[in-house]
Structure formats: structure tokens, C-alpha cells
From TrEMBL:
UniProt record, GO biological process: glycerol metabolic process; lipid metabolic process
Reaction equation(s) it catalyzes: a sn-glycero-3-phosphodiester + H2O = an alcohol + sn-glycerol 3-phosphate + H(+)
GP-PDE domain segment(s): 16-331
Species this protein is from: Sphingomonas gellani
Similarity comment: family membership: Belongs to the glycerophosphoryl diester phosphodiesterase family.
Listed transmembrane segments: none
Keyword Nucleotide-binding in annotation: no
Protein name as catalogued: glycerophosphodiester phosphodiesterase
GO cellular component, as recorded: periplasmic space
E.C. numbers: 3.1.4.46
PROSITE patterns assigned: GP_PDE
Lineage: Bacteria, Pseudomonadati, Pseudomonadota, Alphaproteobacteria, Sphingomonadales
Superkingdom of this protein's organism: Bacteria
Any one GO MF annotation of this record: glycerophosphodiester phosphodiesterase activity
Keywords: Glycerol metabolism, Hydrolase, Signal
């Protein structure tokens, strides 16, 4: 039995939204137009692209700028010499990086499932889909909004903004330019911009009125070292500071709980006027708390629906999920 001691936060500040994390990425290779399109079919309100730049400053959707694990780049001998090691936010990473490829070169690659052992059905689609640009994702959202008669938004994340600014590939202005060109300029636009860093969100708050989301994690701190830790950011004073530039926070889902008891984070964020959009809800046992797992196989499907319903009882204002179909069930938009 989940104990709900967070009664001050039983009601969201806004009707909860369904955010397709990298698309329907539990069923198609993530960050592909096919994954986003399927997510919309399954009821997503927002589709989420993680954005990184190419060498010619085009924003594309990849989980990271290192693309060895999400594309077939290793199978292209003409790019073998591009494999290198870089220091990304203090971590040494070896592979192939989007900033070393032009868009035309990236378009010769095909996406691969990042977790093939857990998601063999998705891996069956390897090699079918190209790396999409932000422009293509915006066009998809606009077209499907017209097709479905409901507004489909986008929820882009700026990946490693300090790193890219330091190497001469700043992304904030590129992103805002494209969003504004699509007619998305204010807080009523179907857009949220998210980041784990603070400095770029503060900069964004000065050049756009689009809603901003401060991402936080259970450990560590922002790569731009604006705060000593994410934990410090989630104190009452820290939350009030975030509310000065952001519309909400995106915590790791585990941060909503202390064991089986609500942690109070939703209540505290709401008290500061911040919406709460936790990440990332997935159906595989490997990603579920023990109480929601079925069997012992890491890739087997557990009870994601129950986990989402428990989170919604805390008053969250939306959630990221790899499985928008189950998310729609949790929001009572379709039958289980």
C-alpha cells in the first residue's frame, strides 16, 4: 500500500500532460520521426527531442552528441577516422560526435535501438529511420496537430549547452529562432524548453517568453556549476530561485518518494509556484521499483500503469514516458 502523506499536493497546478520521452521510444528507436509519430497516435500531448548541433549548426535529435550507440555510424568506413575521445561535462567519452558531421553526412546514417537487449521489438526497426532535424520535428507536430484536431507540442532539451558554447556551437539562439519562426513565442505556445544546466535557462529567459523547465537529478549538480548540487536547488530557497526564471522542474521520478512515502517535493515545488514533470516512466522491470515488477527478467513488462497512477495521486503536472499508450491509460484517456 502506498501511503499518501502529501495531501497539500494532491491536486496539480495544471491538468497533467503526457510527454513522449524521445517519442514512443519503448517501441521504436528513440528520436526518430517514426517514434514521434507513433507517440502522437498513442495520445501524447508533447513529443520530446534532445537537441545537439551538427558541424554546420543544424539542430538534430539525439540522446547525446555521441552517436555510436544510437546510429549505424560504426558501419560506415568513410567515417572511421572521425572516432575520437572528448571531455564532455567533465567525463571522457569515446565515439563519434554530431558536431564533427555535417547534416548531409548525418543523413546518410540510420538510427538504432539504444537498449536492444531490453527492447528487441524496437531493435527490429534498426536501419529504417534517419536522424531528424528540429525543423522536421516541428513540421511533424504542426502537421499532426492539423490532422488530429488537437494541439501537439514539443518539449526540447538543450544537451550540454556549456560544452557546445565553449567549442563555438552555441545552441540557445538557434533553438529560439526556430521556435519563434514557427509562431511559438510566448507562454501560451505548446512548447517547453528544458535543461539540466541553469545558466542557459537564465539566458533563454531573457530572449524568449516560452516556458522553461529546470531539470534536476537525485545526485550530482548542474554541469555549469551554478549550484553545488541539485539537492541544494530543491530546498525552499532553491525552488524560489528556480521560480524566478522557470515554469517548472523536471525531477527524476525517484525523487518523488522516500521509500513508499511521498518525499514532499511535489508539495514544495507547488508552494513555490512550480509545475512538476518527473522523468522517466518505463514499463520494463529494469526501470521499475521492486513493488511494480513482474517476474525477474529485466526486459519483462511490469506494472507501469500502477506506478503512474501513484505518481498522479501526488499531484504531478505531467510526466515523461517511453510508453505513451500506458500513459494515456493512466490519465483515463483510453481503456487498459
Amino acid at each position: 500500500m502506498i501511503r499518501n502523506e502529501n495531501t497539500a499536493s494532491d491536486h496539480p497546478l495544471s491538468p497533467p500532460i503526457l510527454i513522449a520521452h524521445r517519442g514512443a521510444s519503448g517501441m521504436r528507436p528513440e528520436h526518430t520521426l517514426a517514434a514521434y509519430d507513433l507517440a502522437i497516435d498513442q495520445g501524447a500531448d508533447f513529443i520530446e527531442p534532445d537537441l545537439v548541433p551538427t558541424r554546420d549548426d543544424v539542430l538534430v535529435a539525439r540522446h547525446e552528441n555521441e552517436i555510436g550507440g544510437t546510429t549505424d555510424v560504426a558501419d560506415h568506413p568513410q567515417f572511421a577516422g572521425r572516432r575520437t575521445t572528448k571531455l564532455i561535462d567533465g567525463r571522457s567519452v569515446t565515439g563519434w560526435f554530431t558536431e564533427d558531421f555535417t547534416l548531409a553526412e548525418l543523413k546518410t546514417l540510420r538510427a538504432r535501438e539504444r537498449l536492444p537487449d531490453l527492447r528487441p521489438d524496437s531493435a527490429a526497426h534498426d536501419g529504417r529511420y534517419a536522424v531528424p532535424t528540429l525543423a522536421e520535428i516541428i513540421a511533424l507536430a504542426l502537421r499532426r496537430s492539423a490532422d488530429t484536431g488537437r494541439t501537439i507540442g514539443i518539449y526540447p532539451e538543450t544537451k550540454h549547452p556549456s560544452y557546445f558554447a565553449a567549442i563555438g556551437n552555441p545552441v540557445d539562439a538557434l533553438l529560439v529562432h526556430q521556435l519563434h519562426a514557427a509562431g511559438w513565442t510566448g507562454p501560451d505556445a505548446p512548447v517547453f524548453i528544458q535543461s539540466f544546466e541553469v545558466g542557459n535557462l537564465r539566458r533563454l529567459s531573457r530572449i524568449t517568453n516560452i516556458r522553461l523547465i529546470q531539470l534536476v537529478d537525485a545526485a550530482g549538480g548542474p554541469a555549469d556549476e551554478t549550484w553545488p548540487s541539485y539537492a541544494a536547488m530543491l530546498t525552499p530557497d532553491g525552488l524560489r530561485d528556480i521560480a524566478g526564471y522557470a515554469y517548472g522542474i523536471g525531477p527524476a521520478k525517484a525523487q518523488l518518494w522516500t521509500g513508499d512515502t511521498p518525499s514532499g517535493l511535489v508539495r514544495d515545488a507547488h508552494a513555490a509556484g512550480l509545475r512538476v514533470h518527473p522523468w522517466t516512466y518505463r514499463r520494463e522491470n529494469a526501470f521499475l521499483p521492486a513493488r511494480y515488477r513482474h517476474g525477474s527478467q529485466a526486459g519483462a513488462s511490469g506494472d507501469l500503469l500502477a506506478e503512474l497512477r501513484a505518481a498522479l495521486l501526488l499531484g504531478i503536472d505531467g510526466f515523461f514516458t517511453d510508453h505513451p499508450d500506458i500513459g494515456a491509460q493512466a490519465l483515463c484517456r483510453k481503456d487498459p
